[in-house]
């Protein structure tokens, strides 16, 4: 079975349109096993109920931002090895550095294409 | 015009169309990218195979290559096309980084009973893995009694056999520090032979980087230098993620001086020196296939 058939992904973004775009792009890549969450707290709850291989999270979210979510994921033994891909705006070099320090696996800069998402996932897991 | 051989029976003139056919075979067999600029080099290497197989000209040799029975010959062809010059401690800055930054914590781990793995991917005739082994043993003389090992792989069975034997003409080791040479090689007349201490650390295996990799990893260090330059851009871009997924977080990838990670893969690494890449420190996410077994 191909990687794309097995990979379970959680998309976290407070903007419904962004969640939709990412989910669509994943679908186009053949990744159908996708859950979504609109904030960090529900993302953590979702992962506890149904573990995933990869979290794709926006940085810019109210309450718990992407880095705080990453921190919480790494702090929990049950989820600490989950792949984490951070989405950031163009000029967020410090956020990227912080993300590196906290153990993100890769990042995507906005704006990005479905092909960019594919590349970012493959750089972590190997060929889809 | 390209020269014909003196005896007039073999022509080493490879036409553009013939070159394209060879390039197509090299691409489908091993993902190799033969640029037209390499035509003279390809021509002379092909001439070796022509002589070896007794074909009178490229036309008949190519016709043979395109038949189903020529699988063995296609493999030999790939061997001669990928054979390249290598030397001990090539690109010395990588070995300085290895000795000063990379090895010390790995040796500590091995000493404490941990596992350490280094992969020399595209090891050619063995100069690279033996250089790595010398670096390890210089800092860690009893390495062979710990779980620290080097996997050395190449697509070319002939160079791999040379690597296994570990015998080199003296002049090939001229550049190697005399103390190292005396410590790790034995003098056997015209040749110098790699000692058992070096060999104990290395497993040699045939592996096509473009095919399946029957290896689990993870690796702490991967050397893949001056290998991917033979691959086309798409094959290269597909290779970096595979190395990434076999490296431990913080693991190091050394690539050749003219080789670059594509922009996407580079994001999952941090530059750690000249053509030296460190995998992002995030944990190694379990591959989905691990869970389903």
Task: Describe the fold and architecture.
The complex is a heterodimer of chains A (128) and B (293). Chain A is α/β, with parallel strands linked by helices. Chain A has six helices and five strands. Chain A has helices spanning 3-6, 16-28, 40-49, 66-75, 93-102, 114-125, and strands at 9-12, 34-37, 54-58, 83-88, 106-109. In chain A, helix 2 links the parallel strand 1 (9-12) and strand 2 (34-37). The longest helix of chain A has 13 residues, at 16-28. Chain B is an alpha/beta fold and 293 residues long. Chain B has two domains: 16-81, Chemotaxis Receptor Methyltransferase Cher, domain 1 (Orthogonal Bundle); 92-279, Vaccinia Virus protein VP39 (Rossmann fold), CATH 3.40.50. Helix content of chain B is 43%, strand content 17%. Chain B has helices at residues 16-30, 39-53, 58-65, 71-82, 92-111, 127-139, 157-165, 178-184, 196-199, 233-246, 263-267, 288-292; strands at 116-121, 148-154, 167-169, 185-188, 191-194, 202-206, 219-224, 247-255, 269-271, 276-279. In chain B, strands 6-2-1-7-8-10-9 form a seven-stranded mixed beta sheet. A three-stranded antiparallel beta sheet of chain B has the order 3-5-4. The interface between A and B is medium-sized, with 29 and 26 residues.
CATH-derived architecture of the largest domain in chain B:
3-Layer(aba) Sandwich
Percent of residues in β-strands of chain B = 15-25%
Mean pLDDT of chain A: 93
Report the count of strand segments of chain A: 5
Overall mean confidence score, pLDDT of chain B: 87
What composes the largest sheet of chain B? 7 strands, mixed
List low-confidence stretches of chain A. Answer: none
Order of helices and strands of chain B: HHHHHEHEHEHEEHEEHEHEEH
CATH superfamily (homologous) name of the largest domain in chain B: Vaccinia Virus protein VP39
Attribute tags:
heterodimer; A: 128 residues; alpha/beta; five-stranded parallel beta sheet; 6 helices; 5 strands; globular; B: 293 residues; Chemotaxis Receptor Methyltransferase Cher, domain 1; Rossmann fold; 2 domains; seven-stranded mixed beta sheet; three-stranded antiparallel beta sheet; 17% strand; disordered N terminus
